[in-house]
Amino acid sequence: MSASFDKDKESLVKGFSPMHDHPLQHQLFYGNSNAVNGSSNLASSPSQSPASSSPSMVGYHMPMYGNNMARYPVQMNLSQKMQPQQQSGMNHNTMAHHGLSAPAGNSPVSPHIDLSTLNSSQPNTPYLARQLSYAQMSRQSASPHHHARTAAALARGTTLSTAVTITDPNNPTKTLTGLGTKRGGRLTEVQENDGVPAKVNEPNPLQSWSSLDMGGMGLQNLSATLFNAYEFLTTLYINHNNLTYLSSAISNLVNLKVLDASGNKLTSIPPEMGMLVQLKELLLFDNSLETLPNELGTLYQLETLGLEGNPIHAALKSLLLKEGSQAVIVSLRENCPVGMPPPEREWITVDGDSSNDDPNDKITVFSYNILCERLATASQYGYTPSWALTWEYRRELLVPEIVGWGADIICLQEVELGEYENYLRDDLKKLGDYHGAFWPKSRAKTMGEKDRIAVDGCAIFFRSSKFNLIEQQVLEYNQSSLKRDDFKKTADIYNRVMTKDNIAVMLMLEVKHTHARILVANTHTHWHPSFADVKLVQIGLLVEETIKFAEKHLQPTPESSPDAPVYESPTQLPTIICGDFNSVPSSGVYEFLSRGSVKQDHEDFGNHAYGAYTTEGLAHDLNLRSAYSSLNELPFTNYTPGFKGVLDYIFPSANTFSVSGVLGPIDKEYISRQVGFPNPHFPSDHIPIMCELVLKTPAKDKKETPSVFPKN
Predict the structure, then answer these.
(1) Residues forming a β-bridge with 363
(2) Which of 84, 200, 377, 498 is the most interior residue, by most CB within 10 Å?
(3) EC annotation (predicted)?
């Protein structure tokens, strides 16, 4: 897993949460069963309920993965309800049929529902009660602009003549009738749900409204403008119209949390709706739907799927009534066909310094956060099929991709100790003649053998046919910080830096043909965006230790050839720093590495104190530039619903290397259909990056020429 901005810890839904912004939402859950037409039979708060075939390693250059993945048809168990995302797909052919009588057409029906009169063959489950009750609420909202009118009444402070509890769509804390209001985020008259609320996007301060009610207007079509210009919408009511289809452009409304399309004439749902991963409630009551697209399986945050009043497939209805909305989503996800993989990533040629055409001076460098097994969980990546998260499946994609590009130097992050020792070390040696060096994070030193194997760290592999290993070294940031006297005097070092056990691995390599020495560092910094100061301190320490490491190897070793070069200073020794820096291009980390300095009052330091770092600033003269700087970086290296951006970099020293080429981005058309990684084609939430470097003529023999790296 990427330890990065994408680490949104989605809370597991416990029981049922109210329908967000929906009128009558509190009735079902808070026991106000008599609120609708005085019926005592309306259900009150429902109780809580609780190896596939993979591609073989053939053709190691960016293999294409086919559409022949097997599925796991496993009957779902209600006892697994607390972890629905980890359940395997349902075999729809084995499900029993449960039919619910639907109202004729889209006309509203009597709000009175007596569950005791239902056919005895129907399972009297909370999910059935939920469907019937919510459908009834929807049918009572059939009048034009029902939600907008009630919200306006709330704003005027008037009392409507209704027995229905209504909430303001733009302010769910306001209610007209029924239960009390929320104050300070807590209910005053009922007990608050004990589930942890899911994270929500911060509201746009310039956008004063986010709900739109187009219900009950008899609309037959929706303008494309709705989907292209209103991406800020979180709630959309298009219920009780005459819509026969929904445009695929609805996928542009990526902030939607509530979509009510009930009471229309829909016969299908666009698969693109699976891109709306923020959806909590999808209400499709009283349409003509017989099935749902498997692509809706990516709606991992969906809590309510309203299908009552549709001629839905018997197996799908059975699953919905027996195990609820989340079970349907899990089944759709687990059984979704694997689409076509993207085209191979293009190799982009960069017009760098071409004065050196010697192939022995060309070095390819590959960096990849592979997402360790321990962090590849269904709770973290709920949009990914469970079979595609297993290490066995992902490993068979990772190894050929790592080896297939044929890089001379490979830097990997999130490599577990056990996976390195049992698989990667041997696989890469056998398939590419690579030798490796690996260290786990510092916590491994305090653990027993059984726990140590699950600790991740950083690994560097190099072609033994091209390089000799001179020395290897590990940098433990928390320990290194205590070596500075000025750091020991600051509380933030102990409270913020010392508690993070990130590391870096450094190797000193010698090119066998030319005897040139190359310093390679690989790191994985702390992930949390609230610790930008810690990341900056860690990279400051990394640069300091890199310079010290270089100073030890300015002179050739006694075993080296007499022709081995002598470097006058660390700035002349070819240096490459790679890794997952968990920092975007606008961060202090990127600024420090690429520009050579950051001021002592940089915003990433915040109000924290780190000795000379925050009194004098940081500076270095290694002349580092990102290999992708000529492209202004890739569109992203980390791709999840919560974060899409660049976190991974390769920083060579620009005075000793020129960049002749880089590995290009993922195909745009393919990406436009993906919620996030990992998926069946991409085994990590990160993508690999790669560049080809050319050693320049030593600076003492020729005047330094500008490289492809722009001066910032």
Answers:
(1) 693
(2) 84
(3) 3.1.13.4
Both tokens of 643, joined, read: 């974060």
Active site residues: 580
- Is the alpha carbon torsion for 443, 446, 447, 453 positive or negative? positive
Written as six digits, the tokens of 438 are 């690996």
Helix pair angle (314-323, 325-334), 10° resolution: 130
Picking from 510, 507, 415, the residue whose alpha carbon sits closest to that of residue 454 is 415
- Determine the average pLDDT of the residues in 585-608: 97
Q: 204 pLDDT band (50/70/90 cuts)?
A: low
Q: Which residue has the tokens 């069946």?
A: 680
Other CB atoms within 10 Å distance of the CB of residue 711 = 10
Token output for 434: 């690579």
For residue range 154-186, list pLDDT tens digits in order: 878 755 444 444 455 555 554 444 333 333 332
When mean pLDDT is compared across 200-209, 623-632, 691-700, the lowest value belongs to 200-209
Angle at alpha carbon of residue 41, lines to 182 and 103, rounded to 5°:
100
For residue 41, pLDDT beyond 80 = no
The three-class DSSP label of residue 414 is strand
pLDDT in tens, 553-585: 999 988 888 889 999 999 999 999 999 999 999
Spacing of C-alpha 270 from chain mean position? 23
Classified as helix, coil or strand, 509 is strand
Q: Which two tokens stand for residue 224?
A: 């494309």
Query: Concatenated DSSP letters for 516-580?
Result: -EEEEEEEE----GGGHHHHHHHHHHHHHHHHHHHHTTSSPPTTS-TT----SSGGGS-EEEEEE
Tokens of 149: 């009118």
Identify the weakest region by mean pLDDT among 27-31, 311-315, 553-557, 611-615.
27-31
Residue type, 521: A
pLDDT, one tens digit per residue, over 58-85 is: 333 333 333 333 322 333 333 333 333 3
- Which residues are CB-contacts of 702 (< 8 A; sequence separation ≥ 6)? none
Name the strand (E) or helix (H) holding 329.
Answer: helix 325-334
Q: Using alpha carbons, select from 581, 554, 578, 582 the residue that is nearest to residue 566.
A: 554
Residue-wise pLDDT for 254-275, tens only, equals: 999 999 999 999 999 999 999 9
**Which pair of tokens denotes residue 19?**
């329908």
Q: Which two tokens stand for residue 630?
A: 């000529």
